[in-house]
Write a structure and sequence with these properties.
Order of helices and strands: HHHEHEHEEEHEHEHHH
Number of helices: 10
Radius of gyration: 17 Å
CATH superfamily: Phosphopantoate/pantothenate synthetase
Shape: globular
CATH architecture: 3-Layer(aba) Sandwich
Helix content: 40-55%
Bound molecules: ligand PTJ
CATH topology: Rossmann fold
Structural class: alpha/beta
Number of strands: 7
């Protein structure tokens, strides 16, 4: 691995690149995951690589929905496993929520590898390998899921996703939460709650919010969730980006 000094102005971003790059070399990340990461980087640049308060609002609502859920599942793909395996496990433990590996570029090797990474990070069990159920209307491998995992869930977190699974999960009546740096993506516009933030900043915040909200009255959380307007939050996020572009020079 290339030595990156902490003093480098783009230290955090370069370290994430290293994680994705070594994830690809180890077989966790699919080669197209590099492209997805690059797109995320570009949008993160527009955010100033920081979490705006508008994005944090979405993070709180997502935490509330996870606390309110009966059978929540966190969906993990290659990029997510390479960047935030430990945070996924932590979030799964505090909610508590099941973890399921769900891949667009599904292969037995990658499924097993990602399951192992999550188990090594402390997950007691990981769903996804059985693949004994299908999400209706999805002809590709993302439609394969576990009956006792995503298929039976009521709330699903799908970070770094492409749009059609999100819509298909919603059709099944599930509440879908996504984390996507691109506020214009189909997933961002289809999900019930879109956190426009880097997954590496969003997941640790969600862990903290879930811990806090578990002490709160359920009715308060339900009211918060009921008042949520995802499109309005996305509009505000575009406003944040546009203001930043106008004030940079
Ligand atoms: O591991 P697999 O086989 O399931 O494949 C996963 C990838 C990521 C390759 C696949 O889902 C894919 O191609 O995704 P897309 O359609 O490129 O969408 C990924 C979205 O995530 C884009 O909108 C990116 O802007 C966004 N993104 C990338 N990195 C981050 C991110 N959002 C939040 N945090 C990031 N670190």
């Amino acid at each position: 691995m290339t030595h990156i000094p902490k003093s480098h102005p783009r230290y955090q971003s370069l370290m994430l690149r290293e994680l994705i790059s070594s994830g690809m070399k180890n077989g966790l990340v699919h080669e197209t995951g590099l492209i997805a990461h690059g797109r995320g980087e570009a949008f993160d640049y527009l955010l100033g690589e920081d979490t705006p308060s508008i994005a944090d609002e979405a993070c709180k609502i997502a935490a509330a929905q996870l606390v309110l859920a009966n059978d929540p599942v966190l969906s993990v793909n290659g990029n997510v496993a390479a960047l935030v395996a430990q945070d996924c496990v932590k979030l799964g433990q505090v909610v508590p929520a099941k973890l399921e590996v769900n891949l667009f570029h599904r292969s037995a090797e990658r499924m097993n590898l990602i399951c192992d990474v999550l188990k090594n990070a402390g997950a007691a069990s990981v769903y996804g390998i059985h693949g004994d159920a299908r999400i209706a209307g999805l002809d590709h491998n993302r439609g394969i899921c576990d009956k006792n995992g995503i298929y039976g869930s009521d709330v699903v977190l799908v970070p770094l996703e492409d749009g059609d699974r999100c819509a298909a999960l919603k059709k099944m009546g599930k509440i879908v939460i996504t984390i996507d740096l691109n506020p214009l993506s189909r997933t961002a516009r289809t999900a019930d709650i879109t956190i426009v933030d880097n997954v590496v900043r969003a997941l640790p915040r969600m862990v903290k919010y879930v811990q806090d909200m578990k002490q709160q009255d359920k009715e308060t959380l339900k009211n918060m969730a009921m008042l949520w307007d995802n499109m309005d939050n996305l509009r505000k996020m575009l406003g944040v980006i546009s203001d930043r572009l106008h004030t940079l020079f």
